[in-house]
Structures are given as structure tokens and as C-alpha cells.
Amino acid sequence: MASDANLTICADPATLAETAAHLIVDAATEAVRARGRFLLCLAGGETPRETYRCLALPAFSERMRWDQTWIFFGDERAVPPDHPESNYRMAYESLLSKVPIPEHQVLRMHGEQSDADAAAAAYAAELAGAIGTKRGELPRFDVVLLGLGIDGHTASLFPGSPVLREVFRAVAAVHVAAAQIPQRLTLTFPVLNAAARVVFLVTGPEKAKILRTVLSEHSGLPAALVRPTDGELIWLTDRAAAALHPVSQAR
Ligand code: 6PG
What we know:
Layout: E1 2-4, E2 7-10, H1 13-35, E3 38-42, H2 49-55, H3 58-61, E4 69-73, E5 75-77, H4 87-94, H5 116-131, E6 143-146, E7 171-175, E8 183-187, H6 189-192, E9 197-202, H7 208-215, E10 232-238, H8 246-250
Parallel strand pairs: 2-10, 3-4, 3-6, 6-9, 9-10
Antiparallel strand pairs: 1-2, 5-8, 7-8
Helix pairs in contact: 1-2
The structure holds 6-phosphogluconic acid.
């Protein structure tokens, strides 16, 4: 495993999943000890699935206080929760259906709701209610997991999208013509950057070019704009995704 500032390169996706699961359990233990609960925001897409499966294994799950854990989502596609493209469904199948977390402590985005703006506002209100944030205050997650798209998007914050400039709303509805499912709900930068710890999970050779670009100076791509104001930023990658990164090149 090689690393620099906030980049840890794991040998392969399985090692990355274990490393991420350890990180989540440690963060959960610390949060419950310090604040009595753990606020975890899940990523969508395919890459986190192995981490969720790992976290559901007894070796990790039995160290989690699921009764004190609250689950949220970084983004969702405009599909029902049982749809193959649903981020909720992916998380449910790989983790949530396998661990003893109280149902009311899993807050999914209602991507299937036809009025997307209303769904975004409703989720923002649910976040505030569950986390106890006052008007104008930002919810502060203990851990936010994020993925990286080959165009540099993260959550559903895509290059060129007006939502990249959002400063007030915690949750927004976005329409991304280039995406397989254009209509989506997403957390916005103010919320992502208010987190205590943001962890990117990135695997595969197809991500090598974009990872190098995002981690290089001033790319201005959405994933590069995730910079916690008072928190930690961690990049967990596998060797294939980091193949073009100077750290790998140096070895
Ligand atoms: C989504 C995700 C998105 C994802 C990236 C990477 O709903 O699509 O939240 O931001 O993390 O597209 O996706 P993969 O992990 O599948 O490569």
C-alpha cells in the first residue's frame, strides 16, 4: 500500500473495500463515543458495492453500533427504490438488508418522485430533522463516501451543471443530459464540504486518467471541488486507478 497526503493506493479492489470498511468502523466507534451516534452518507454507482458487502460481514458489522447509526445518500437517480439503477437498491442489497439498522434510521432520497424539486426540498428537510440542524445550518456527516465518474463528476455534481454554484440548498434536483438516467437528486457542495471526513472510493484502469487530472492542480472538475472546510479528505484507490499518479510512477 503506497500513500501520500490524502491518497492511499490499495493493491486491488478487495483490499480497498477492507480498508474502507475498517475506516468506517473506526469512524463510527469514535463518533458514537464522542456524540452518541454515527452519521454515514453512502455513495452510489458500482464501486462502493464491495465496501458495503465487506461492512456487512460479521468481522466488521459486529463492531458497528447499528442502533446508533444513521444512513443517508449522496445522490439518487430518478427511479423507484427497487429499480436496478437505484443507488438505494444497491446499498440495500449489499449492506442495509444484512445489518440490524433500525429502518427509520435509513433515509433514502425519493428519486422516483415526479416533482424532483419537491423531492430535493423534502430530503433537505428530512436531513435537518434527523440531524437536528437549525435553519441556515449545514448538516455535518461523520463520513461521506463518494465515487468518481470518468468525466470528473461525483455524487450527481456533473461538469458544467449550474448546481455546482449552489450555495444555499443542501439538496438539489439536477438534469444531466449526458447521464444514462438524466434526472437525479444530489447533495450540494456546501453539505459535502461541511463533512468531518470525505472518502473517495476509486477503482479500475478506466479511472486512471481522470484521477490524475482531478488530483493535479486546478482541474476545476466537480470531484476536485470537494474540499472539506473543517474536515479530512481521503482518496482510497486501487493500483489500476492510480497507475498514472506520480506516487505510483515514483515506485
Ligand atoms: C451515481 C453516483 C456517481 C458515481 C460515479 C462513479 O449515482 O452515479 O453517485 O457519482 O459515484 O458515477 O460510478 P462507478 O462507481 O459506477 O464507476
